[in-house]
Amino acid sequence: MLRSELVDNIHKDNPYLTREESERVVAVILESVIQTMEKGARVELRGFGAFSTRHRAARKGRNPRTGDTVMVPEKHVPFFRAGKELKARVDNSSK
Question: pTM, whole model, 2 decimals?
Fold first, then answer.
C-alpha cells in the first residue's frame, strides 16, 4: 500500500474529512513515529507492532567492486516487530 492509498482509505472511511485533512492525519502520525524514534524511544501500536531502533557497531566491510577493506561506521537502524494480532491476521489470510 502506498501513502496515497492510505490517505484515500482514510478519506473514504471518514467522509467528513477533506482529502487535505486526511493527508495531514497521515503526515502527523508518521512524523510522530519518526520523531519518537529519533529520540531513541520505542513506538508501540497495540495489535499492530512496535517500532524501535537497533544499534549496529562499527565494523570492517569490503568494497565488492575492488575488494578493498573499508570501515563501516556505527549506526542506528529502524526495526519493526509485528504484533501478535497482526501476525495472526496475516497468517489466517494466506490460507
Answer: 0.79
